[in-house]
Amino acid sequence: MQSLKGVERRNRIVEILTSSEEPVPGGTLALKLGVSRQVIVTDIAIIRTKFPDLTATRNGYILSGNTGNRRIFKVRHDDEDIEDELTCIVDLGGTILDVFVEHRVYGTISVPLDISSRRDITNFMNDLKSGVSTPLKNITHGYHFHTVEAHSVKIIDEIENMLKEKGYLIEAMSSQNIWKPKSYKEM
Questions:
Q1: Is 141 annotated in some ligand binding site?
Q2: Residue 88: which pLDDT band, with cuts at 50, 70 and 90?
Q3: Which residues bind Ni(2+) (predicted)?
């Protein structure tokens, strides 16, 4: 396949991601579009400026045009409650796509998680317990956000109710872009 020019290629990436129900690996996009994986990484960064709902998971990229089955939960809890929080989301049928915090100096700091099973939770907890690093939430006194996805709005509502019942939930909001990039040019 002949490689496409920048704008045309990025439009094609958006089409591929929007029409896919599964994450699309960068390597697959590169093969389909006749470019290197590095070109795809650069294109994804550019696409994110117009489509902030684009999520990178370990299985590939996701761009959901239907955000009704996603919700952002602002939560707060102690380190001892991390596993319980993640388990209640997964056990109800949710996938934790990311964790992010709003830092007063650095703006939004985000990390893709893609946790959808108890095995994923075990692996994540093992990383935390290894002592290599501390949870991201600790830089904002326990406050953090998760983007959660599920097969139906009913499941998302059940997850919200469970987080509220457990006392973790601060606020729930649509998965529209709430990230606020920090700009020092406008201060």
A1: no
A2: very high
A3: 77, 85, 144, 146
Question: What is the value of pTM for the model shown?
Answer: 0.63
Reduce the DSSP state of residue 67 to 3 states and report it.
helix
CATH topology of domain 70-166: Histidine-containing Protein; Chain: A; (3.30.1340)
- Return the bridge partners of 144, or none: 75
Same fold, 6-63 and 70-166: no
The pLDDT of residue 51: 78
| Structure-token pair, residue 93 | 């049928």
Which conformational region is residue 170 in: left (phi greater than 0), alpha (psi within -120 to 50 degrees), or beta? Answer: alpha
Closest to 148 measured CA to CA, from 131, 183, 173, 167: 173
Tell me which fold the domain 6-63 belongs to: Arc Repressor Mutant, subunit A (1.10.10)
Distance between CA atoms of 170 and 73, rounded to whole angstroms?
A: 8
Name the strands in the sheet holding 107-115, side by side, starting at the edge strand that comes first in the sequence. Answer: 107-115, 95-103, 143-149, 70-76, 169-174
146 is in an annotated binding site: yes
What does the alpha-carbon distance between residue 150 and residue 50 come to, in Å, rounded to a whole number? Answer: 24
Residue 151 marked as a ligand binder? no
